[in-house]
User: Fold these one by one.
Assistant:
Number 1:
Amino acid sequence: MGYDAGKKVKGRKRHHLVDTLGLLWALVVHSAGVQDRDGAKLLLERTRREPALRERLQKIWVDRGYRGTLEAWVTAHYDCVLEIVRRADDGKGFVVLPHRWVVERTLGWLNRWRRLLEGQ
């Protein structure tokens, strides 16, 4: 088990690649000690082995945790655009981020099944 210093928790991280409908394309689970952008690289490497998936990728939306060198890496290795979905500066409390809710809905679907929950 790894330790995520940002969230101050031990455990695992899951990275999901979903389409605009929220259907799961790829999934990677790794130690919490791995940076988000490195986990995204592991996830996108899976699509390289699947030509049908790689060809369908046009735009990838990610949250702020993936900023940094990932944008240049995606541009160099893939024929698509990586867009970081940012929160509005004046937003207080919970704000629904564009495109991010699709991933959250998919996580909600997956968490309905108790066997997928951590610690079960």
Number 2:
Amino acid sequence: MTDMPELVGGALCLDFVNTVDPRHAANRFDYLSEYRALVAWARHAGAIEAAAAPGLLRRAARQPAAAREVLRRSIRLREVLYRIFASAMARRPPPRDAFDRLNHELGWAIAAARLTRSRAGFVLQWGDHRSRLDQVLLPVIRSAVDLLIDGPLDRVRECPGPGNCGWLFIDLSKNGSRRWCDMRTCGNRAKAHRHYTRIRGRA
């Protein structure tokens, strides 16, 4: 299994969008190449508990067509979320088809929710979906809705890193000046590129 992507988005839904690298490259690498990889990412990102993964993989083995359909939905949702957040960054309304698709996914997620009571009070629980192949999408959808409603939507940024990075992240820096998804990767690559350009300019 290929190493999982760094979790630099600051929100689960953005880390989900960042499962292609670089986003805008023609030969980008897709971390969600199969259903097994989707489950691995969900474990990695904390979208599901580790104990849930074996059951999901066994069910996927019994229902390969259903697993492929969940993977297709997942990739479609990922691209829908990118388009919606890219529009928000540009201060434009979301594309109608993308917004409709998110609402479609939200519909079944809400239908699966239930109100429960704990010692701390009432809690909205998004159902017990241990046997559903698409349970990995529930936390992603909820994260996207939370970010769109509660923000900080105005702090969502897209990394301009070398190689057409395009990863999304929430800029929580005090003055809103964070530029890179991760200074250790894109930031250092940009520094190296600027240094190389200066050296060539002196030659």
Number 3:
Amino acid sequence: MEPKRDLIHDYITSMTQRLEQWVREQRRLASELETLGKKMEGTDDRLTLLLSAQAMLAYIERTLKDFESWLNNPMITAVMPLEMLKKLEAMLRAVAVQFINTDIEHTSEYRDLLNKMAQGDVPDILKLYFQQRVPQQQQAQQRDEERRDRGLPRIY
């Protein structure tokens, strides 16, 4: 028994409306992020920049999960033309390569910063951290050795 055309039409109409709403919301969000980006260009506040970067990753993560859910829905992908899938795969590959290149660039830049620090230009905050941490580690090692000498298990 073939489904009534009205049922299929209602489904398509409903889905189209939801997708239109989704696209509007994504455009609004993209616009807000671009506006935020312009504000971030003018800030030197490290915490604000860090929180903004973390928020960008959260937006990427949310969109990735939604996109994955979209592509896992057979009601969507079953009717998607091959050319549309080819175009999507190519676009997502380009985004993946760009994202990986961003990671490589950032990680390499940070590695270079650490190499510079290793040559003696260590920030005061790292010096302070290790001044506090080393005595604590030494005390913990000493306690562990004493416990081991008495046959007691190590406490984590």
